[in-house]
Structure formats: C-alpha cells, structure tokens
Amino acid sequence: MRVLDCGTFVAASHAAKQLADLGAEVVKVEPPAGDGTRARGPFPGGTFDPEASGLFLYLNANKRGITLDLEKPESRPVLDRLVAASDVVLHDVAPDRIAARGLEADRLLELQPSLVVTSITPFGLDGPKSGLRAHDLNLWCAGGIAFLNGGGPAAADLPPLKVYGQQAGFQAGLNASVASLGALLAAQQSGHGQLVEVSTQECLVSILELAFEHYPYMGISPSRLGRKPIQPLDFLQCKDGWIYICCVEEHQWRTFLELVGSPEWGEMEIFGDRLQRGTNWDALEIFLNEIAAEWTVEELYHAAQARRIPFAPVSTMGDLLASKHLQARGFFATVESPRGHAVTVPGAPYRHARTPWRLRRRAPALGEHTDEVLRHLGYDASELERLRASGAIG
User: What total of structural domains would you count in the chain?
Assistant: First the structure.
C-alpha cells in the first residue's frame, strides 16, 4: 500500500501515521521550508531545532520524506508522477488552496482511476462554512465539546475550554485513516477510486455521546455548569496528587466511611443519601478533602480498590511514563531525530499477533529522501538540478 502524505499540520499527518504504522509505504511531502509541526516542538532542552520537534518525530516515523513546493508550476509533473505511483493521497489543505496545489480529486482520479483521495478540512468541502479556515480552538467550539469542558459547577464565571493540544486534528486523522482503508478495499474490489471527505467538526460532533442525544430527545443542553444531582462523584486532592472518587451507591458510601474510620459527619442527616449528598456537596467536599489530604494517591486508591470502591488515580504525564503496567506491555517506543536526539513516544494502541507493529524508520530530515524517491520515479540528476534551481524541491 503506497500513501502520499500531503498534510500541512496534524490531521493528515496523523492519518498517514496510522497507515504507516500498519505497514504502508508512506512518502511525506513537505514544502521546502518544512512542515508546520517542525516549529511546534517540544524541543530537547527547550532549544528550537526543526529536526528535533517531538510532535514531528511522533507523527512522521515510519515515513520517507521529500520536499516539493506544490504551488510552483514546476512541481505539478512531479506530483502527478507521485500520484500515479500511489494508492492513497491524504491532505488537509484548505478548500481554497486545493486547486492551487494540484490536489483536486477529479484531476487526481483521472491520473489514477483506482486512487483514494482523502481530504480533511475543518467543515467539509460544501455547505455555508466550507470556505472557512479554523484552528484547534475554533473546531472544539464548533464541535460543541468546549461547552461541556471547563471550570465546572463551582466555577460558573470561567469560560468554556478546549481540550489540550491539537486533539481536533488527531481525531480527524484517526477517522480519515479508517475511512481511507474502507475506500481502498472498495477500490480493490471494483477498480474505482473515490474522494473521501472528512469534516473535523463532524468528527467532534460524533463523539459527543449522550450529551448530544439529550437535546433531540429532551430539549436539554448538557453543559459543564450546574450541580451534579448525586455525590460523591468528583476529584479530591491527596498528599501528592489528585484522585477521582466515585461512591454514589449506598453500599459504596458505607464501605468508604468504614475505610476512613466512620467519622461522625458520615451520619449527618444532610448526607443521608446520594441525592442529599449532591445537594449538600459544598459541605461534604470539605470533609472529604480533609480525609484525602491524609493519604497519598496510591495508598487511597489501593485501599479503596481492595474494598471494591471505584476510585481512580489522576495520572500525570510522568505517572504514565513510569507506569509499570504500560512498561510491562512494551507500550512506549523510542524514536531518534536525524541529529540523534532520542524521545519516548506512545507506541501503537493495538497488537497484531502475527504482524506486530514496529518502528521501521525514524522521522525523515527535511528533504532527506527527495532524490531517492524522485530517482525511483525516473528523474535523472540533471532534472533534479533543474527542479532545485526552480525552487520546486529543496
């Protein structure tokens, strides 16, 4: 399976990463100045290095990389040869720039009738908002998730919040990879390729779960505001971190009180059942935080777990990296930059018994495989020199 990754930031790069990790031969196309993720970081020691961006290294391992300025006329024949040798073309180019970069689906399908062309855009390729550009912040708001995320009941004055990082792009990329595989199977059966269109907004709306269904069924708009009707169902601060407490069933509540020495406030009428505990959570939370402050996260978690009370530690990034469970499963992998910097990244979130995932190659240096890939397409040294002189390749 041959994939041409013409991504500009996270979404298409992540889609192509999923396919590369499954064994596809992926060529990453970057402009001569480099992909935008090279400037995002994080960087070793906090020092800017476009060849050592942790985000770029994570997204582009298992790919070969070339430079090609898709907006230069001299690049069009090169792109066409790359397309003719590909099964899937992935991009997240803004709708008003698709034609300028030669990535129109109709044109590409004329070159390769069995091709799958996957386009990821903020709002799709048609509709009133299709021409709008958007960043991660815009998309989480457009997808409705920011309205569900934020300060919570005790912080009604705080605004909605987007999710950390570039998660909208990651969600869109994951959907695009699955959709591309489905279209590729169809092409193998019928001989006919197609355009696969992915709207990032629609990817986010599709994971709203019951928060969305409450509205068409009941006319209710769930939000981050408002008090939970039952408690305890919240976060508590221990000596060394946070823990999530969930003991809303009466037997869980009674067992928890026994665990912490059956304090007298546990018998107060205002905490008599889970609804009253919800109504009077402001008072109960004070008592529970005083209890939690006497324990470490691990102590309270294991003590509760042994009594079948569903608590959960709130993992930090350091906790995850040090997780004995994830280490025992060999989840993390180490990738190197072209300059030799090593960084630990998440591995594949799946296992194949017969064809296990592995890191076949590090992420490419800028333009590292340009000559190799283009020579394979038939370009000789003089043609490569001409393309460099025109600025089409770096």
Answer: 2
Cα(203)–Cα(122) distance, integer angstroms: 10
Q: What is the pLDDT of residues 250-277, one digit of tens each?
A: 999 999 999 999 999 999 999 999 999 9
Whether 40 and 152 map to the same domain: the answer is: yes
On the question of a cis peptide bond just before residue 50, with omega within 30 degrees of 0, the verdict is: no
CA terminus-to-terminus distance, the chain: 26
CB 222 within 8 A of CB 149: no
Residue of 128, 126, 108 lying closest to 118 (CA atoms): 108
Kindly report the number of other CB atoms within 10 A of residue 92's CB atom. 26
Give the residue carrying structure tokens 């997808």: 143
Shared-domain flag, residues 202 and 346: yes
pTM of the complete model: 0.91
Q: Torsion-angle region of residue 165: left (phi > 0), alpha (psi -120 to 50) or beta?
A: left
3: tokens are 């994939």
CB atoms within 10 A of CB 349: 8
Alpha helices in the chain, H assignment, sequence order: 11-21, 54-60, 76-84, 105-111, 136-142, 167-190, 200-205, 210-218, 250-259, 274-279, 281-292, 297-306, 317-321, 324-328, 370-376, 381-390
pLDDT at 153: 65
Give me the pLDDT at residue 179, please: 98
DSSP codes of every residue in 262-317: --GGGG-GGGSSHHHHHHTHHHHHHHHHHHHTTS-HHHHHHHHHHTT---EE---H
CATH of the domain at 360: 3.40.50.10540
pLDDT at 249: 95
**3-class DSSP assignment, residue 194:** strand
In a domain, 218, yes or no: no
Domain check: are 304 and 202 in the same one? Answer: no
Bridge partners of 3?
26, 88
pLDDT 10s digits, 287-333: 999 999 999 999 999 999 999 999 999 999 999 999 999 999 999 99
Instruction: Please identify every stretch of the chain with a pLDDT value under 50, giving residue numbers as ranges.
Output: none
Please indicate, yes or no, if residue 213 is contained in any of the structural domains: no
Whole-angstrom Cα distance, residue 27 to residue 66?
A: 7
Range of the domain at 271: 233-316
